[in-house]
Write a structure and sequence with these properties.
The chain is about 20% helix and about 30% strand. By secondary structure, the chain is an alpha+beta fold. The chain has a single domain (about 30-220), classed as Jelly Rolls, CATH 2.60.120.330. The strands form four sheets. The chain has a six-stranded antiparallel sheet. Strands 8-14-11-12 form a four-stranded antiparallel sheet, with no helix packed on it. A hairpin with a 2-residue loop joins strand 11 and strand 12 (about 185). The termini are far apart.
Amino acid sequence: MDTSDTVAPDDRRAVEQWMATSPDTQSVAGFVPGPGIQRLSVRFEIERLREALEECLERADFLGGDWKRHGFAALPLTRRPGAVEVDDNDLSGRYWLRRDERYVEEPFEDFVDEAAFTEFDPAFAGTYFETVHYELTRRFPIGRMRVLSKDVYNCNSWHRDPEPRLHIPIVTNPGSLFVVNHHVTHLPADGSVYFTDTRSYHTALNGGLTPRVHIVAALAFPPIAD
């Protein structure tokens, strides 16, 4: 540490200028679009989404194996035609991250053929989620469509995926945030559909006091190569 009596005046002035402006404590509770996170025009009825969530959870429990111990669980809504088994790779799939101080990007798990997940699971037939799937597939090539939950005080890894995703928040709180590269925002649960370019580095975190539940639909465009 520099123990001299000299104080860098530029640093002092910079801190005083920063403190002269009050921090923004209002916009952080809403959605702010940015690179990699945009809101689409299509919307769904939030109360019907929540009713469908309760109905589907009565028919099947969240899956996730060891992930559930870490506050993460999934309920697959689509499948390969006729498939009845779901393995761990289907619930997750290929992603890349830098695991340690080497800062070396490494691949994890196997690629999932999103385009193969064309069938809405008949176990959830007749629910509003089936309507959501129908409306999304009218507009986009949809692969895996899952209900993903994140427990309180919980965060995903900082990683990137082969494909972008659509998010439809069903249950959330102001402390639940989504980050893509250097942009972070809250995704309100008001029936909106959000495009998230998860081909970029991203994470989701729940810093709130209640669980966060989203529908997450993979866009089955040709994946980026590794």
